[in-house]
Amino acid sequence: MANSSATPMKDRIFNYLPPAMIVAVLCFWGMGPGYMVEHPGTLIATSALITITVLLLELVHERHADWRMNRQEFATDLFYVVLSATVVAWVSQKIGEEPLAAAKASLGITTQWAMNMPWVAQVALVVFVIEFGQYWMHRLMHNVGPFWLTHAPHHHLTQLNAAKGAVGNPIELVLISLSVIALFDLELTAIFAGINVLGVISTFAHANVRSDPPVFYSFVFTTIRHHSLHHSTDYLSTRCNYGNSVILFDRIFGTYREGEAAMVGQDDRRRLSIWEQTIFPFQPMLERYRARSNRKVAGNDDVANEDSNAEAAAGRPVGSGVAA
Length: 324
Ligand SMILES: [Zn+2]
Ligand SMILES: [Zn+2]
Hints:
Elements (H helix, E strand, L loop, with lengths): L8 H7 L1 H15 L2 H4 L2 H21 L10 H37 L4 H4 L3 H23 L3 H7 L18 H8 L10 H19 L8 H4 L5 H7 L4 H4 L9 H6 L20 H6 L3 H16 L4 H17 L5
The structure holds zinc ion (2 copies).
One zinc ion binds next to loops.
């Protein structure tokens, strides 16, 4: 819960950690030595450092004992962090950024005005452009069946931790990473800084850390309070707070909801394995195929019956997440 003025010193320090980390990220990319900030490998290192730092903070000041890290959760999270940094990043570059950059070049689109903006404004542009796309993609996922099937595994999380933002079906991870930022001419360090700022916000927004940032932060940026409500067991609450990092978009577009949840998950809070998350979008198809095969084996060709069985099986995971 949000703390009053009688907040103990430890809580108060933790409440200011997310904004402090954003300032640190800006200082590093804005003032760091050239050989470091212009090296592409540095972004991987700083992204990992952000996740590790917040994971360690979970050990120092946890939010809920039920969300405490264990071996199984850690192994799963690590798998998805590596997957996101490798396969997902590569696919997203091939189907998103590269075609966009090629189209921009062939159409002769130039956005020199962006490059001429102050560096901090360029970082802000990166944050808001990427997040604007993510907000609408996330909202689409909660409202259109096939997209929901890719996003539903993320809502089967039964606890929240620093790297849980990377956990989900691989198709969803690619879709959510698509953005139009490649259309803008920007300083490379501003793009890297923007990505790391988003990393800090969304990592804290998924983390088991007792940190409730001050209103100057939480009015604009997503916190664990907002995002835990999005992950709650209450269906209507999951249909709000879509902003992965910028909650301001929910306030603007009318999807903001105040509150917080300690219990997260859906469908009886069933935790999915990595394999179950991977095949989840294809489950209705597989169930339909199985139902058909079973009918054939039984020698019964009653198509109406077989289809209604398949529908019932396929509808189970979808029904709890998508509005009728
Ligand atoms: Zn969602
Ligand atoms: Zn989430």
